[in-house]
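Budget justification note: compute hours in this period were largely spent on complex prediction jobs such as the one shown. Inputs:
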Amino acid sequence: MKYSLIASLLILILPPAWGQTPEEHGLQIAQEADRRDTGFNDLPPT
Amino acid sequence: MTMLLRNAHGEESLRYMRTRALEVENDGDKTLMVFDRPRDVKGTALLTFSHKTELDDQWLYLPALKRVKRIASKNKSGPFMGSEFAFEDLASQEVEKYTYKYLRDEACGDLQCFVIERYPVDPNSGYTRQMVWLDKQEYRPQKIDYYDRKNSLLKTLEFSKYSQYLDRYWRAADMFMSNHQTAKTTLLSWSNYQFRVGLKDSDFNRNSLKRIR
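Corresponding output:
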């Protein structure tokens, strides 16, 4: 009973990856690739 | 860095060049490519200011003409120096330049990849769409298929010989572009990657293109 309650809560709290549209998922992958490659060189003075 | 051009008959032409790139906070990267050899292209330089949402700025310096030519947006789908890379392929690939769609996961060589499709926001792009394979572990591009304005497969860019720098940044030593419609290929081979060497905004100046050696 305890475990099923936790599982139910997790389903409610966690954003379900399977709930993403293909467009959202594609953008998320592109953003993650960009994030990992950011900061490779000196930034110019602002 | 070298650029190896090969035509459909297998005839080759090798060029030597230098590149540098600078990240710009809240905007796209600035990049500069300068040809060193052979003599007929020596001093030719391409300066690119990529932007996240605005159109990119690109200037080409042609030493034979001794003038800096601005690359008009409508010409960015054209070939760069007779290679299979278009001017737009050489600008940094900012996230905002495309809309996206996840297609599937699949094996890509020894790796597992995300396959996504991206659609250029710029109506002047030479492409209707690009299919991109990114490995799931490091999110490195492994392959890109480019589809022309008629939605036919035009080119494929393959990345290989990846190395990691500064314990974080992955760079491919080879980028091989093959044109399926002409059977021509271009191989860009990179060496001596250096990071955080103190490049400044002033190292990417349109007015200094003529003086670059």
